[in-house]
Amino acid sequence: MTSRPLLTIVLAAGKGTRMKSAVPKVLHRVGGLSLIGHVLTAIRSLGQSRTAFVIGPNMDGVRAEAAKIAPEAEVFVQDQQLGTAHAVLAARTAIARHDGDVLVVFGDTPFITPATLEGLLASLDATTPVAVLGFHAADPNGYGRLILDGPEQVSVIREQEDATEAEREITFCNSGVMAFRGEQMLTLLEAIGSRNAKGEYYLTDAVAIARSKGYRVAAHSCVEEEVMGINSRNQLAQAEAVFQRRFRERVMAEGATLIAPETVWFSHDTVIGRDVIIEPNVFFGPKVVVEDEVVIRANCHIEGARLRRGAEVGPFARLRPNADIGPRAKIGNFVEVKNVTVEEGAKANHLSYLGDGRVGAGANIGAGTIFCNYDGFFKHRTDVGAGAFVGSNTALVAPVNIGPGAFIGSGSVITKDVPADALALERNEQSVREGWAAKFRTMMQRRKSEKRS
Ligand code: UD1
Ligand code: CA
Question: Chain-wide mean pLDDT for the chain?
Fold first, then answer.
């Protein structure tokens, strides 16, 4: 928690040309959440912070995402991409109005943590109006280097292209994340002149300017992984790998068993309880809640579903949005469930589609049962009462209600409601002809031998 009011400026104006995508860079997803969504989650944990996004022109998608994840945030448009200082100054009015500290973060750096941001802010004080987040780079190429002239004292940030041979040997690099005291910030930024042929304004020049005015500039450091930036599809995949590794570790630390963790894929919002067992090759899409003691067998695809205590699903189950699998209920192989509440102890163990409805407590859904929920125009509900028994290969043509305790004979196509405890059977009566098969075989074998001769 910071003591002074905080404004966070998220720079998201870059198009990300190296992504080769129609989608702006910061909208690409890691763990199912946009890159700016990740950054915002970290900012949120800092407590009371005002947020400003700086986006490029014609970035309606980014504007919409910002409105979704941070409706209270202000959005500024940087008309031309003239550098990081220019981008920050697009939010000038927000800075001028603000009385406190200001954080500048990049929208394409998804793993920044609240603890690191707090540490950076804590190194500001009345004589230190600027703080820079640095990291030791395995490969410093392309980064600005932090040149120190005292313990944790930055004298200048040297961009790669301006660095001398000796300076390029430095591996302590600028992450891009910086913190400012609001009082001095605009004066420092307005002193930054344009550089290079493109007339870019470098935020990093604020460091030397602050020093020339007699202020101190603090360096705070974090691990490289936290500030990895995403510039290409390859880096996006690397970031996904980092995200998944951390998520798996967290899920296990919180008491779940992953038999082959490297094969289980989570979303940013997956909730996994204690003593949950997850077998290999399971994929979680967004909005899944798995309560304690659930078992998920191999090769399941699960999204938007809730699995209640002690439920068992898979192998090869597909749970789609609003599948609510009750306590100790069982969903077996090749069963798809969408928008159905499966109540306590109910079972659908094999090869079924359950869409739009309810399966009452303790009911049994036989192999090959289909809820025919769609007539080509509208979706309809199927309601199976508690303790009902639906025989194999049944088509329940919705809307239809099966009363509690009813029996459905296998192979039935059920189009009318079935009362409680009744038997419903919809199929032709079986006919049997004694000895028919033996006679048939004899006749056919004779014909075949006649043909050959
Ligand atoms: C920047 C830093 C460098 C640091 C590196 C870390 C400067 C001058 N250099 O370099 O010291 O090591 O990040 O990754 O700051 N942006 C805008 N508008 C602009 C320009 C950039 O919004 O006009 C945004 C981009 O969308 C991106 C961020 O600012 O999110 C950084 O811009 P980028 O061009 O990637 O800076 P680097 O050259 O990587
Ligand atoms: Ca960059």
Answer: 96
